[in-house]
Design a protein that fits this description.
The complex is a heterodimer of chains A (199) and B (649).
Chain A (H helix, E strand, L loop, with lengths): L3 E2 L4 E9 L6 H11 L9 E4 L5 E14 L2 E9 L7 H8 L4 E7 L5 H17 L9 E6 L11 H8 L6 E3 L8 H18 L4
Chain B lengths: L20 H12 L8 E4 L6 H15 L5 E5 H13 L3 H9 L3 E5 L8 H17 L2 E6 L11 H9 L1 E4 L5 H15 L5 H9 L5 H18 L5 H8 L9 H6 L6 H17 L1 H15 L5 H7 L7 H25 L15 H14 L19 H15 L8 E4 L6 H16 L3 E5 H13 L3 H9 L3 E5 L8 H16 L3 E6 L11 H7 L3 E4 L5 H16 L4 H9 L5 H18 L5 H9 L48
Parallel strand pairs in B: 1-4, 1-5, 2-3, 3-4, 6-9, 6-10, 7-8, 8-9
Helix pairs in contact in B: 1-2, 3-4, 7-8, 7-9, 8-10, 13-14, 15-16, 17-18, 23-24, 23-25, 25-26
The chains are: A alpha/beta (199), B alpha/beta (649).
């Protein structure tokens, strides 16, 4: 996918929110959607089941206007977290410029987080994407829950963040940490763009 | 060449406050009445407080009021360079003419006069001439005249006779006024509070203030929205204002949400990351074009829409610059004029620059070095030579620092040349070569030849390139003015650069006929070491050593007999020893007192020698035939009948 087009002066970034089911990926996008002025956002497409579980994927297009002469557009996607939607995850992951791995901070969800992370790595490998160079940040969601139910950020980092990429504690329901995460992954994506420009 | 006056630096664009009011008033006065009010006018202040601005404002106003007036503005470096260029061209008069014909001379940064007596002399002459002719001289410095080291008292008096004013650090109100003026000039809108924030910072000079202004202007331009107080403070503290706090947002009366802040940060990131390559190239162009280099190849990159491999391109460009600088430095050692060729500022013409250097290197002929025939070990030690020898050893141990120059004085044949070359050899070994060691006669001949062949600059480069300069028989330069001028320039270069100079002379400098006083004074500014004719003890040492070297042993009575004969020089003593040894061998007799006496005191018809030990003054054990000095002629035989002239090849 072309990210920076110097000829047409356009920047387009595809960022995928990845993670286990019910970790809060859609909540992240909903919070962002709520904060964006109406003229800046497109229609958020969300295909969900009757129990509000993402069936296919969420898609939030953001038109960020002209930045330094570039028409800048961000496309935010989530993947369905459930194990049996792997084909959809692969499809959404295709062409991603950056990934936010949204982990559930609850102690009892640690195995699911690890399983999903492993699944992310497998899917990236299948698409011949070098996991070491793909812009990636971790968001440890639900940090707002009682302390006895969640793991602290440091422990979650120890368990999952082997590469030492940026990580954020978050509470997507209240918006805490949501934009910090988005800002961080955006910076990584844009930095990579400047290193490997594509016309 | 006079530097151009910056049209922005006028009195109209100068913000006046208590800290600079006196200086501005004085400058206005001399602009309106050049040469009659305060002459010379001397302005001093810390760097960046507007001295150059005022100096140029004087020049602009003089030209405005009197369009035919000749105004010369230049920095001290340019002043010195103009002087050196004129001297190098052998036309110092042109330098004086140039400034004598100016109506106003504006000289910047004169604090660097400290170590240049010649330039101080020129300035004294200029100031005096200007005062007489009612033409204006204005000087600036970063310190008051009394604090400039080694400033000539006469120059101090002249400056005291004019007006000396200083410029202080601008206070808050003046800083604010300067910022408001700059905002108007730049057509940039800042809120008054933001300008006040900048002015509150206690900067030490105006340049820092304007630098801070530019930083804030750039930040505001990138963000495409007015700078807030919070952001201004953060920038002044050297921080990156990545996010604007709620308090700051409320200052603007805007409820900037998280999305706005995200957008703002994203803009910075895009500018830095996506378009950063342009900034990088632009920075490189600004830097290198400012240093006079041709930056066309970078400008081509900037013209494209799509970034290339920016780092690599700038890296390659800078590698070429580095290569050019090395080539420029290399050719300057051989031919300083060639180093000014524009090709050394053009990274696209590296091959041509390399070719020029190759050619210069091939043409370069190193200066004559010290002779291998002389060594410190073979130099005779005795009371007459002790001081000179110790001085020589000190010079070898600390070249250029302890005794510079070292002048060895003594009559002919006492070992000056031996010691000079021995010092030269030791310095040469230490420096890895490039020691110039030659006789004054050779120096003069070489110069004359260079002038004839119109390659004076190459000749100069040859000697300037040397790590040390040793000249035998300096008194022989006599009244040759061009040689004296060149030697004077070499003096300044070598002493200034801490490179060793050693001279020999038959007489003390004050007794040297035709030699300019400035050279005489320089010859004695290091150490003058005398070598006197050998006393009996030294003669005994020399005779013993020489006999041992020639015949393997030295009878004490023979040594005494030969040593007690009166001789004025080591050279003549060695000739005597040589005669008796050769004579005894010819007669097939053992060398004893009787045979020696017979050879020296009885009638003896001398025969011209086919070979001679050559000049070995001061030598103890120089083996026959070891001497390879090309410039020495043996003159000191006991009488004319025995005189042998030998020129060794």
């Amino acid at each position: 996918m072309s990210l920076v087009n110097f000829t047409t002066r356009e920047i387009t970034c595809k960022i995928v929110y990845y993670g286990p089911g019910r970790s809060g990926k859609t909540t992240n996008l909903q919070y962002i959607y709520d904060q964006v002025p109406p003229e800046r956002r497109g229609r958020m497409v969300s295909l969900a089941t009757q129990t509000d579980r993402t069936l296919f994927f969420d898609f939030l297009p953001l038109d960020l206007g002209t930045i330094s002469g570039f028409t800048t557009k961000f496309q935010l996607y989530t993947v369905p977290g459930q194990v049996y939607y792997n084909a959809t995850r692969k499809l959404v992951l295709h062409g991603a410029d950056g990934v936010v791995f949204v982990a559930d901070s609850q102690i009892r969800q640690l195995d699911e987080n690890l399983e999903s992370l492993q699944n992310l790595q497998v899917n990236l490998l299948e698409q011949r994407i070098d996991v070491r160079t793909l812009p990636l940040v971790f968001q440890y969601n639900k940090q707002g829950l009682p302390r006895e139910l969640v793991l602290p950020v440091e422990e979650l980092d120890d368990a999952m963040n082997f590469r030492g990429v940026p990580s954020f504690g978050a509470d997507a329901l209240t918006g805490n940490g949501v934009f910090e995460t988005l800002r961080s992954v955006s910076e990584l994506v844009l930095r990579k763009l400047s290193e490997e420009p594509s016309a | 060449m006079t530097a151009e006056l910056n049209p922005r630096f006028t009195f109209d664009t100068c913000v006046v406050g208590p800290s600079n009011r006196l200086a501005v008033t004085a400058c206005r006065t001399v602009s309106e009445h050049p040469g009659t009010a305060y002459n010379p006018l001397f302005i001093y202040s810390q760097t960046g407080l507007g001295k150059t601005h005022l100096l140029m404002a004087v020049g602009q106003m003089v030209r405005e009021l009197s369009p035919t007036a000749t105004v010369e503005y230049l920095t001290l470096d340019e002043f010195v360079e103009a002087y050196h260029t004129a001297v190098s061209a052998g036309t110092p008069g042109n330098f004086r003419d140039r400034f004598s014909h100016a109506d106003v001379v504006l000289l910047d940064d004169v604090q660097f006069l400290s170590h240049s007596k010649e330039m101080q002399t020129e300035l004294i002459r200029l100031a005096s001439e200007f005062q007489d002719a009612e033409r204006q001289l204005v000087l600036t410095s970063d310190r008051p005249p009394a604090d400039i080291e080694n400033l000539d008292d006469r120059l101090l008096e002249q400056l005291d006779g004019g007006l000396i004013v200083d410029i202080g650090i601008p206070e808050y109100e003046m800083r604010l006024a300067i910022l408001q003026r700059r905002a108007e000039e730049s057509e940039v809108e800042f809120s008054p509070e933001v300008l006040a924030v900048i002015a509150e910072f206690d900067v030490q000079h105006v340049r820092a203030l304007l630098g801070a202004f530019n930083r804030l202007q750039a930040f505001q331009s990138v963000n495409e929205q007015p700078l807030t107080l919070h952001q201004a403070r953060a920038l002044m503290l050297g921080e990156t204002p990545v996010a604007e706090p709620e308090a700051a947002a409320s200052e603007r009366g805007e409820a900037a949400g998280e999305f706005d802040r995200f957008l703002s940060d994203l803009k910075v990131t895009v500018t830095q990351q996506v378009e950063g390559w342009k900034t990088e190239i632009q920075d490189a162009i600004t830097e290198w074009s400012g240093r006079g280099y041709d930056t066309k190849s970078l400008e081509v990159l900037l013209g494209q829409d799509v970034p290339g491999a920016t780092d690599a391109a700038v890296g390659v460009f800078e590698e070429k610059i580095e290569r050019l600088r090395r080539l420029e430095a290399e050719i300057a050692e051989f031919d300083p004029e060639a180093a000014r060729h524009p090709i050394f500022k053009s990274p696209d013409r590296i091959a041509g620059a390399e070719q020029l250097v190759r050619e210069a290197r091939e043409k370069f002929i190193p200066p004559p070095g010290p002779s291998d025939a002389f060594s410190l070990e073979s130099f005779a030690v005795g009371e007459p030579t002790r001081m000179a020898l110790e001085a020589g050893r000190s010079v070898i141990a600390q070249p250029g620092t302890l005794y510079n120059p070292l002048l060895l004085v003594g009559p002919a044949g006492v070992g000056k040349t031996h010691l000079l070359h021995a010092i030269g050899r030791a310095l040469d070994a230490e420096a890895g070569g490039a020691v110039a060691c030659l006789a004054a006669g050779t120096f003069v001949e070489d110069l004359v030849k260079a002038i004839e062949q119109d390659r004076l600059s190459a000749w100069r480069a040859k000697y300037r390139h040397a790590s040390a300069f040793l000249l035998d028989d300096v008194h022989e330069i006599g009244a040759r003015l061009q040689t004296q001028e060149e030697l004077f320039n070499l003096f300044n270069l070598f002493i200034g650069a801490g490179r060793q100079m050693v001279f020999t002379a038959k007489v003390l400098p004050q007794e040297m006929e035709g030699l300019d006083d400035r050279l005489k004074s320089r010859l004695v500014q290091g150490l003058v070491a005398m070598i006197t004719p050998p006393d009996v003890e030294l003669r005994r040492t020399i005779v013993r050593s020489h006999l041992e070297a020639r015949v393997g042993s030295a009878e004490a009575d023979v040594v005494d007999y030969l040593a007690e004969r009166a001789t004025e020089s080591v050279r003549s003593l060695l000739n005597v020893v040589q005669r008796v040894v050769t004579g005894a061998e010819a007669m097939g007799r053992k060398l004893d007192v009787e045979s020696a006496r017979q050879l020296l005191e009885q009638a003896h018809k001398p025969e011209p020698r086919a070979s001679s030990p050559g000049r070995a003054s001061g030598g103890m054990a120089a083996p026959p035939g070891a001497l390879r000095s090309q410039e020495k002629i043996v003159w000191d035989w006991p009488n004319m009948a025995e005189r042998v002239i030998e020129e060794l090849s």
